[in-house]
């Protein structure tokens, strides 16, 4: 059992130390929030324009959301530089995230018909605004899913997804008391920005929200997920405090859960358990060194107690609010008595060792019933959650990928043209044809490949 699994890992081995992640580690300390709020009131930072200007003479192929299980390819005018800190990206590859399935299944609030969706992509910089300093036209870049300003007190402390400037949603402020960052193609709760399952995407605060890929030997597939889930899965490990010798259980063996297992192994976890009900996903987890539990066959709590009687140091929820198991929560969600099912968290809190930690990386949006507050409190569990701090991690994680120390491409099962995105969503949602992660290629990707 590791005794100090929140803050310190074996620093000699720990990448956080190796690449100097102390600023992110400091997020374990309670931040003086009133100071931050005072700063914001006085903030001179100009929020980005949400709806960009468009060039009505050039068209962009995009994926539009039209309602539950209804996404359609459409032609829309191409975005152009709108704010001085913008860049316009000619997308080569994008992909579908488990978070996109919240919108696809009609579970995400704040969607409007014809919203352009998608938040993980990369491509080539076509144009930049006059204030962009670090990025040049022609650079190959990965786009961060969370949109950060890079200047507010949250961004300055590395907590980029808590950026105060990029999301103007009053609804979110009413729900949460605060607004977190804006995001591409992720409903009007996170600003209502156009998404990047598209040929062209406009990126505000380009210096902050783009990662330059200078090594042309790296394929799009190797680096694309730095825009979200590679960083997300790292974040799950940071939130849980996974380090050498830790024992870890990960609920969900979707793309995020699988990469969480990959990083747990990289960070030196002693035993890793992966829990899901889909055999091909569990098989992938085994390739990363995990022991697996199929919850459709075995009771998770009993099996975990047999396999590791004291309980794992860290339990990670990579499932989220939308999947329900039992009738109680299916019914409550159906009649809007609760928005988020807490079943995975319930299991995790029972399974985790006394004094252990539970990390919530799967998305939750609002409220749950029957949350096991007593078990959580009496066992002295620490629970942390949050959206990824993409920009804090991606430089370091790129180096690890570049060194060949990990290869996130093991989750890719399908590569399809962007024009087939509706089909790809259906497959990913239904998990048919063994679909785990789909890479969507634009026509421009083929042009780029031949010219390289
Ligand atoms: N916090 C962040 O920054 C962040 C970023 C990206 C994605 N996410 C979230 O992470 C979650 C996972 O994303 P993904 O792309 O892997 O999605 P996914 O939907 O493909 O994966 C979820 C997996 O959980 C499994 N599952 C369902 N119920 C379960 C249960 N009771 N126990 C164990 N496993 C169960 C499913 O079979 C599936 O394989 C989603 O909620 C997504 O929104 C969060
Ligand atoms: Zn995502
Ligand atoms: Zn900010």
TrEMBL record:
Entries under SUPFAM superfamilies matching the protein: GroES-like (SSF50129), NAD(P)-binding Rossmann-fold domains (SSF51735)
Cofactor: Zn(2+)
Residue ranges occupied by any Alcohol dehydrogenase-like N-terminal domain in the UniProt entry: 84-207
Organism listed in the record: Adineta steineri
InterPro entries per record: ADH-like_C, ADH-like_N, ADH_Zn_CS, GroES-like_sf, NAD(P)-bd_dom_sf
Alcohol dehydrogenase-like C-terminal domain boundaries: 255-320
PROSITE patterns the record matches: ADH_ZINC
UniProt keyword annotations, A-Z: Metal-binding, Oxidoreductase, Zinc
Name by which UniProt lists this protein: Uncharacterized protein
CDD domains: FDH_like_1
Coiled coil: none
Family: Belongs to the zinc-containing alcohol dehydrogenase family.
């Amino acid at each position: 059992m590791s005794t100090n699994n929140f803050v310190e890992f074996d620093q000699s081995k720990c990448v956080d130390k190796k690449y100097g992640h102390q600023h992110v580690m400091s997020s374990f300390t309670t931040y003086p929030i009133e100071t931050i709020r005072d700063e914001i009131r006085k903030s001179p930072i100009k929020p980005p324009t949400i709806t960009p200007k468009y060039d009505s003479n050039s068209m962009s192929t995009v994926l539009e959301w039209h309602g539950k299980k209804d996404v359609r390819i459409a032609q829309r005018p191409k975005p152009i530089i709108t704010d001085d800190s913008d860049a316009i990206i000619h997308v080569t590859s994008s992909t579908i995230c488990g978070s996109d399935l919240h919108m696809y299944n009609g579970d995400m609030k704040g969607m409007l018909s014809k919203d352009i969706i998608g938040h993980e992509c990369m491509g080539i910089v076509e144009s930049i605004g006059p204030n962009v300093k670090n990025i040049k036209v022609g650079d190959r870049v990965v786009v961060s899913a969370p949109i950060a300003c890079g200047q507010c007190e949250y961004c300055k402390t590395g907590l980029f997804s808590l950026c105060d400037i990029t999301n103007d949603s009053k609804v979110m402020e009413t729900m949460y008391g605060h607004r977190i960052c804006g995001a591409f193609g992720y409903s009007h709760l996170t600003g209502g920005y156009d998404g990047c399952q598209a040929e062209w995407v406009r990126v505000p605060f380009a210096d902050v929200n783009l990662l330059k890929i200078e090594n042309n030997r790296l394929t799009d597939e190797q680096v694309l997920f730095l825009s979200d889930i590679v960083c997300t899965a790292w974040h799950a490990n940071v939130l849980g405090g996974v380090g050498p010798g830790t024992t870890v259980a990960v609920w969900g063996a979707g793309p995020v859960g699988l990469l969480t297992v990959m990083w747990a192994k990289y960070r030196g976890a002693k035993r890793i358990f992966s829990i899901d009900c889909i055999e091909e996903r569990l098989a992938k987890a085994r390739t990363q060194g995990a022991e697996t539990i199929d919850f459709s066959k075995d009771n998770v709590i009993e099996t975990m107690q047999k396999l590791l009687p004291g309980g794992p140091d860290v339990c990670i929820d990579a499932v989220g609010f939308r999947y329900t198991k039992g009738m109680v929560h299916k019914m409550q969600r159906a009649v809007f008595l609760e928005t988020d099912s807490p079943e995975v968290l319930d299991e995790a809190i029972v399974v985790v060792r006394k004094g252990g930690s539970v990390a919530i990386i799967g998305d939750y949006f609002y409220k749950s019933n029957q949350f096991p507050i007593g078990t959580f409190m009496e066992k002295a569990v620490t629970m942390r959650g949050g959206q990824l701090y993409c920009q804090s991690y991606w430089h370091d994680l790129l180096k690890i990928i570049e060194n060949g120390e990990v290869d996130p491409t093991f989750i890719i099962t399908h590569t399809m043209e962007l024009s087939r995105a509706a089909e790809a969503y259906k497959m990913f949602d239904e998990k048919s044809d063994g679909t785990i992660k789909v890479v969507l290629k634009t026509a421009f990707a083929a042009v780029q490949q031949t010219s390289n």
